[in-house]
Every structure is written in structure tokens, then in C-alpha cells.
Amino acid sequence: MTDRSLIMDEAALWVVRISDNPDSSTHAAFDAWLAQSPEHRMCYQIALAGWERLDGLGSLRLEPADDRIAFTPAPPRARRHLAWPRALALAASLAAVIIVPIALLVRGEPALAYSTRPGEHREIRLADGSRVELNSNSAIVVRFGHHVREVDLVRGEAAFHVAAASRRFEVHVRHTVVDMTSGEIGVRLDADGPRVTVAKGLVELSGADAQVGPGNLQLGANTIVRVSPDALEVQHLPASEVTRQLTWQSGLLQFDGQTLVEAVADFNRANRRQIRIGDPVVGQMHIGGLFHTDDIDGFADAVAVTLPVAVHHQPDGTIELDQRRSLR
After folding, report:
1. Most CB contacts within 10 A, which of 106, 131, 174, 250?
2. DSSP 181
């Protein structure tokens, strides 16, 4: 690989890192990388332009036949324990994937990108019979090789209904890889790291983070794992709770004692209009109920009726939640 290709790979990774709520240390490392040479800065601008085009893919629609990814054999690849998704290095080329329904070869592998805008939900059927439900404001890159089926979750949330096959199915999210041959899982990229929900099947989790370790962690059905820079949390939950975690696929959000911080985050992910919590005390109150993902006003009304919360509608459409003050 040439030095220019290496710099482009690094530039594409920086585009993703900087777009994902970076902390001050990440910003400092990025500034240092940019300062290394004019070519670093030029490659970053190229990758950034491509990434911005990827953000616009959600407005485009494919014909049903175009949603199929033609299988093109690729050279075998050594199993990776979680490097950053290599396909992100083609950010500058991704816009053409949807417009022209042909396989784009990325280092010998075909790749397609899909994304959704806030408030949009999309179902994607892959060539192997698997199905991906892409939640609001999310993006994935799909690559099928001869020995492995790979999907990179770039942002947001997706549910994977994986068809049985001899090839492994890998979901890459940040420094974590979820590996399976069949089953149903949900993968969500939060600010502090990925969350994996296993509904059916047996999966293996591996990663570069110390919390995951160099080996593989096996997870069965009705398991949720959260990976953050500081911790690895594995929970075995009732099937009903796992189902609740994935109700967004039906256009619903179900809460059963979640905090308003958690519930508002789910609604904000699904809608252009946003809810803002004006008081930390309000954020720690608990809510229950079943709501349509786009019924932001109905959710706010339910909060006002069931909790000591005042709902304020702002001129820009934002809804603010504050403590209700008693009248004396």
C-alpha cells in the first residue's frame, strides 16, 4: 500500500472519530495528525467531502432489485480482532454506490452504503437472504467476501436478522466485532460505546478494547452487552425486555421504568424535533408506556400527566421538560 493510501485510510477514520462526539484528547490527537503535513490536511478534506455525501444518501431510494448486493468472490482475509472498519476509507467514493447499482470493489471486496435521516426507518434485504432494519439517523457499509459477510455500523442503530450460511456474519462497530452464523441481534452505537442485544442465536464478541480482551466472549439469546472505554457490562435479561429493546423496528418505543434521560434519547434519535430536559432531577424520573416513535407530542403529554413535569413548547419546535412548580 502506498503512503498516500495509508494517509487516506487514516483520514477516513478521523472523519468518523471527529463526527462521533469526540472528547478533548481526541481533538488534540486529530490536530496533531493534521499538523504532520499538507497531504494529511488534503486527504482529510477529500474524506470529509465523501462523508458528507454519505450523509445525504438517505434521501435516495433504490428499486427493489438494487437493494440486492451481487456476490463477488474476494480473496480470503485473515480474521481480525477488531481493527477500525477498513471500508470507511472509501468515504470519498460511497455516494456513487447508491446512484449506480453495481458492486464497488474495495480492496477486492464489493461494498454498498446505506443511511437514514432523522425520523426515517429503512429495511434492507441482503443478497444472502439476511435482513437489516436501519433505525433513524443511522448508516452502514456492507461488504460480502468469499468467506465472510461484513457490515460496519458507522452510526446509529440497526437490527440484523441473519440468514444461516457457512460464511460468518460480522458486525463491526468501533473497536468491537460481533460474529455469528445466524440469528437476530440489535447493535447500537451510543456516545460511550456500542451496545449489543442478542435476541436469537449464539454470537461471539471480540475487540481491541482491554475490557473485551484479545479472545472471544460468547453470548447467548436474551443477553445485552455494553462496551465502553472503562467497562464491559453483560446482562442476562427476560425475553420480554430484549423484545422491548427492539420494538423500534415496528415503529414503537416501549418503556418500562426507564429514566426520562433514556426515553428522551430514544425519541431524539427518531425525530427531527427534539426534546430537551431542563432540570437534571427531571431526567432521573421514570416513565412507562408504549408510544409511536413519531408521536413526540403524545409522549410529552403523557409525561406531563403522569409525572410532576412541566412541558414547555419552544418557538423552534423543541419541547423542554422542567420540574412542575407548586403554586402557593
Report:
1. 174
2. S
Buried b (16+ CB within 10 A) or exposed e, 91-101: bbebbebbeee
C-alpha cell at 228: 465502553
Q: Is 204 exposed, middle or buried (0-12, 13-18, 19+ CB in 10 A)?
A: middle
- 56-240 belongs to CATH 2.60.120.1440: yes
pTM: 0.62
What residue type is 153 in one-letter code?
A: L
Q: In the chain, which residues have pLDDT < 70?
A: 1-5, 9, 16, 19-22, 49-110, 208-215, 326-328
Q: Which CATH architecture has domain 251-323?
A: 3-Layer(bab) Sandwich (3.55)
Tell me the per-residue pLDDT of 206-237, one tens digit each, with 9 for 90 and over.
875 545 555 578 899 999 998 887 778 898 98
- Where does residue 80 rank: exposed (0-12), middle (13-18), buried (19+ CB within 10 A)? middle
Read off φ and ψ for residue 34, nearest 5 degrees. -60, -35
Element (H, E) at 270: helix 260-270
Output b/e per residue, 205-244; b: 16+ Cβ within 10 A.
bbbbbebbeeeebebebbbbbbbeeeebeeeeeeeeebeb
Q: Quote the cell numbers at residue 46.
A: 477529500
The ranges assigned to domains in the chain are 56-240, 251-323
Sign of the CA dihedral 4, 10, 13, 14? negative
